[in-house]
Design a protein that fits this description.
By secondary structure, this protein is α+β, with helices and mostly antiparallel strands. It is about 20% helix and about 25% strand. The structure holds coenzyme A (COA).
Length: about 140
């Protein structure tokens, strides 16, 4: 994984390491409205940006199949935003996806202009992703075998 991307600014990029989940959670907790705090991807799914050894940015690539993976849990500490850290993390996710043979990425996000700049669009620019909240089902009606 490249460490050169942000070398000039003292920013390094690498896969997250075992034991770094608390630092990643602390970063994500800064944005409770934008980012899920539950059911986070495992640490091996994360890429991080560091400055002086401190994690200042993170992003996960959650791979569901060879066809599809999600870019999620993208956050950059407020003191380090607008330095293209998020853009570079997303770029590294794309590279990781390509290396693993994944065909398509998606992101569920309120930051649609950011992801648009990063090349994300509605599926083939015509189809929308639609979601259903399973917990909204009224009662248990499915017949168990
Ligand atoms: C969204 C976020 C990750 C961007 O981080 P960042 O490191 O500041 O982003 P970058 O510096 O890579 O920004 C790249 C470009 O997007 C622009 N940009 C940054 N935040 C933007 C936003 N919220 N909406 C639109 N454009 C944005 C920048 O101006 C920059 O433009 P340029 O390419 O013309 O220079 C950061 O603001 C953040 O952590 N937000 C809170 C958590 C969040 O919303 N995460 C995304 C949900 S998955």
């Amino acid at each position: 994984m490249t460490a050169k991307l942000g070398a000039k600014k003292g920013i390094s990029f690498r896969p997250a390491r075992t034991g770094e989940m608390p630092s990643i959670r602390a970063l994500l907790r800064l944005y409770p409205e934008q980012l899920a705090q539950q059911n986070l991807p495992r640490v091996s799914s994360f890429l991080v940006a560091t400055v002086g050894g401190r994690i200042v940015g993170c992003c996960a690539l959650q791979i569901y199949s060879k066809r599809l993976a999600e870019v999620r849990s993208l956050a950059v500490h407020p003191d380090f935003q607008q330095r293209r850290i998020a853009s570079q993390l997303v770029e590294l996710c794309k590279q990781r996806a390509r290396a693993r043979g994944v065909k398509e990425l998606f992101a569920v996000t309120s930051q649609t202009s950011f992801f648009g700049r990063a090349g994300f669009a509605t599926f083939r620019r015509e189809k929308m992703a639609m979601f259903f909240e399973v917990n909204s089902l009224p009662g248990k009606t499915y017949p168990e075998a």
